Amino acid sequence: MHDIRTIRDNPAAFDEGLRRRGLEPQAQALLELDARRRAAQARRDELQQRRNAASKEIGAAKAKKLDTAELMAEVARLKDQIAAAEAEEKDTAAAIEARLAVIPNIPADDVPLGRDEKDNKLIRSWGEPRKFGYTPKEHFDLGERLGLMDFERAAKESGARFTLLMGKLARLERALGQFMLDIHTREFGYTEVSPPLLVRQNAMYGVGQLPKFQDDLFRTTTDYWLIPTAEVPLTYLVADEIVADTTLPRRYTALTACFRAEAGAAGKDTRGMLRQHQFYKVELVSITHPDRSDEEHERMTRCAETILQRLGLPYRVMLLCTGDMGFASRKTYDIEVWLPGQNTYREISSCSNCGEFQARRMNARFRRAGEKGAGFVHTLNGSGIAVGRALIAVMENYQRQDGAIEVPEALRPYMGGVDAITSDV
Questions:
Q1: Is residue 72 exposed (0-12), middle (13-18) or buried (19+ Cβ within 10 Å)?
Q2: Is residue 260 annotated as a catalytic residue, yes or no?
Q3: Architecture of the structural domain at 117-421
Q4: Is 51 a catalytic residue?
Q5: pTM for the complete prediction?
């Protein structure tokens, strides 16, 4: 959420930030509403002052046994006028909030200008893609031939964009999640959280999922929302709180199921399990002091990269351009893992610094010791990493010509010593 006072102080800078996002200027329309709101507020205050004065005059007139009918009529008129001014103030404030609620965050100065993923900037890469002596298969061919990945039965139960895993492949998915959690908690100091998978509307609004992405979310008939990512309940942990700056940064991680309607992904990745309605992901969230959020962003990205390095999966880190960034982000790094079956890199993690954008929406603040005032914290989130896509990457990068899949050494302790996945369930 943007601060209308900041827009009022520098409307040109606000519009320039939107222009870099590829959006039309909005400062003038917002400031016109803001002027109406403030005028209504001033009118209400002026009318209230006159009403108070008139009420005193009535008291004085009654004490002198004078006629108060005219004054009382004026007070009645003032009451109606005050109510009208309050209604206009309330309506214009709601209109301002509604407009601000769908305006994305302003990009950081070092975010490259661009329209889409073609304009993203390569920051670094790690590992060399394996050279196969044969044409590598995609994950769905491998999984189906092993008899451990079933899309038809999943569709019979739930429809498209669901997958049924069995046997050692299901265990490999579980092993990946546990492996990631252990690294993030034991080595990187994240606090593990087991959060609710159903949240209320205020939590979805607070982190910027609503109203912008309503069509991509699942909603129950009792007005709960299924989380699209653990970013929602983890970030909302500090909503409506003022935390001491000495407790920052706060780092949280969670392994949860995630639910996405994928309404905007019609026709994309319909084969396999790259884009699902339900999937597992390890999420990383940091609540930081504003002065240290850029540093925390780099750290979080390195934490996610470590997972891929330990698994021996080649990847690259991309700095997203202004046209490819998420709604709440001011700067985002995407980590893309190499998938030999597709002969390309695909996103497996997205690490974003949201600045104070989410904090303003959910009123999350911090206070320095000895100071009265409070400022907004900065929030960051990242995939640490997407378990389903990690499973795909392991299957494709560690496939053998006979169709079996080698288990990366880092995962073997989580697999009971199993070193390869074969068709034996």
A1: middle
A2: yes
A3: 2-Layer Sandwich (3.30)
A4: no
A5: 0.93
